[in-house]
Each structure stands twice: as C-alpha cells, then as structure tokens.
C-alpha cells in the first residue's frame, strides 16, 4: 500500500531519518545533526556560509562563516553528535568538529581537510561502526577515508560518469556507489563485487541509494535506488557460476564448498560471482510500464523504517511516500 505522509513546502526532500517513535524529514541542503540534538545543519547560502536550526521550530539559531573559504558546499553527512563532514566545489572533503545543542552552537572547528579529488565532490556517506567515509566526485573517482585516522584508504576505481549517490551498509561494511544509471557494489576494502551493467531500454540516472539491513546474512536484504524518472528500483544480489580462464578459483560463497564436494569434476574452472538482479520497480504515479519520463518527480531521498516493514521515499516536489514491504 502506498501512502503520502508528508509534503515539504520548500522543494525537494533531502533526508529522511527513521527513529523509534517518529520520522524526521528535511529538505535538500539540510542535514539532521545526530539525534537527539533536535537540530539541523544547513548550507547553500550565497556567501557559502552554513547555519544551524531547530528542527521543531524550523528557525535558524546560528550562522557560521567557517565554510565560506571552501567554495560551494554540495553535500554533507553526520556520523555523530560532534562531527559534520562537508564537501563540494573546492574538491576537498572537510571534517568539522562541532558542539551544538537544541538552540546553541558553541563550537565549530575544522579537524582535517582531506585532499584527493580533482573536481567537485558530489556525494558523501559515512559509517561510524566501520570508521569509513566515502566521497564521490565529478572526476569519476570515489575515495574511501578512515573516519578515525582521517586518512586516505583506497579508491573505488572504474566509474564511467560523475558519482551521484553513495551508501554504506552498517552491518556488512559493503558500499553502494551510483554513477549515472549504473549501480556498483564494493567491499569495504575497495574490491568490486558486482555492477548492474547496461540493460536494455533507457535507464534513468540514480539519485539516491539505500541498503536494507535486517540481519547480516539475511538473503532478503536488498539495495534500493531512487531514480530521476520517479521510479524506485529494488535490487537483490545473487550468486551465479561463471566459467573462468585458467585454473579453478577458490570458493567465495557460503554455499560453494558443498557444491564443490558434490561435483568436483564439473566445478573445474568455475567460480561464484555476485550479480545484481532487479526484483521490483515502484512508482508513486501510474504504473511503471505506462509512464513517460517527464511526468514524475525524481526520487531524491530514501529510508527504511527501523523494523524494515516500511520503505520511505522523498521526491523533488517535497512529497514523502511510504510503501509497506512484502
């Protein structure tokens, strides 16, 4: 069942956060500072400054010039109450130390600028549990940084267009990156696990991505992408056997060794490979099959409820919808 639960008056939905008792929603260029702080961080002002506001009253209570020298901010993320990470046209990922409470900013200081990109940074993701920051840029690079050490770890290589969305699975540490219509899945060490590749028909650019994280090895876990054509696409990973050149590979899937024992002769030169399979398409408008690409607002934000019973999506018109998951 599809339900409209909110409409923001000022344009596209930027972030949806599901807490135990409530759902928090902010528009583009705003970021919720780790609850229970009750405040948001906001950017996109003409002088490149930033501001802090009260989520309930929607009013700004502090403006900071700290970001002014770092060009236009295009993205931000917040791993905990005392850290905000920003990036944008300057190509530098800035890690800020902040002290902020309900209606007061007492401290904001640059802990570390992270240098590595050569063009504007378009998206960020962070996982405190895995001590990982991921930044994606127009220069086609994606860089992993260590959140504690604030140092370069590795690069996710091989994207063919500007990075548009990133997510980290807090359970497994796996990373999803999106570039144009393509979805990539990586290990936290930077190895490519799977990519959606080119499929038939026109593919819409992906603007946001999210993991479902029921239990670590739950096969029902999926990756959800929100696209510019207003469609939400749900992907699951499957293992497929592939013929390999050269000697047989080591088993890489949990089910592999059983099969190898059952038919070791036939298993020569074959290995398991992860594949991303499209398993569902959701649209808030008419059915996906009869849509024209210009009549539906883009999906700009995604979230899963804490029980994973509901999928929430925000669009470019400021609307937030919920779907009850099967």
From TrEMBL:
SUPFAM superfamilies: WD40 repeat-like (SSF50978)
Keywords: Repeat, WD repeat
Keyword field contains Transcription regulation: no
InterPro entries for the chain: BEACH_domain_protein, WD40/YVTN_repeat-like_dom_sf, WD40_repeat_CS, WD40_repeat_dom_sf, WD40_rpt
WD repeat placement: 114-155
Pfam hit, one: WD40
Residue segments, region Disordered: 242-267
PANTHER family: BLUE CHEESE, WD REPEAT- AND FYVE DOMAIN-CONTAINING PROTEIN 4
Name used for this protein in its record: WDFY family member 4
Lineage: Eukaryota, Metazoa, Chordata, Craniata, Vertebrata
């Amino acid at each position: 069942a599809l339900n409209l639960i909110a409409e923001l008056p000022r344009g596209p939905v930027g972030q949806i956060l599901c807490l135990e008792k409530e759902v928090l929603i902010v528009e583009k260029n705003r970021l919720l500072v780790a609850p229970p702080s009750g405040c948001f961080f906001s950017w996109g002002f003409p002088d490149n400054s930033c501001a802090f506001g009260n989520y309930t009253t929607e009013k700004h209570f502090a403006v900071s010039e700290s970001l002014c020298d770092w060009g236009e901010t295009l993205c931000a993320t917040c791993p905990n109450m005392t850290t905000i990470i920003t990036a944008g046209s300057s190509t530098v990922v800035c890690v800020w130390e902040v002290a902020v409470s309900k209606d007061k900013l007492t401290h904001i200081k640059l802990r570390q600028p992270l240098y590595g990109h050569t063009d504007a940074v378009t998206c960020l993701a962070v996982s405190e549990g895995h001590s990982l920051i991921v930044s994606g840029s127009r220069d086609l690079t994606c860089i992993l940084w260590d959140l504690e050490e604030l140092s370069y770890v590795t690069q996710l290589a091989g994207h063919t267009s500007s990075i548009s969305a990133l997510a980290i699975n807090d359970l497994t540490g796996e990373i999803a990156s999106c570039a144009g219509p393509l979805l990539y899945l990586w290990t936290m060490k930077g190895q490519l696990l799977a990519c959606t590749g080119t499929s038939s028909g026109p593919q819409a650019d992906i603007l946001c991505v999210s993991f479902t994280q029921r239990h670590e090895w739950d096969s029902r876990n999926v990756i959800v992408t929100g696209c510019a054509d207003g469609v939400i696409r749900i992907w699951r990973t499957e293992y497929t056997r592939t013929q390999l050149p050269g000697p047989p590979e080591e088993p890489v899937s949990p089910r592999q060794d059983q099969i190898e024992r059952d038919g070791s002769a036939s298993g020569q030169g074959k290995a398991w490979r992860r594949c991303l399979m499209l398993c569902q398409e959701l649209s808030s408008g008419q059915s996906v099959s009869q849509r024209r690409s210009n009549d539906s607002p883009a999906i700009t934000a995604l979230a899963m409820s804490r029980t994973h019973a509901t999928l929430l999506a925000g669009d470019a018109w400021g609307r937030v919808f919920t779907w009850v998951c099967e």
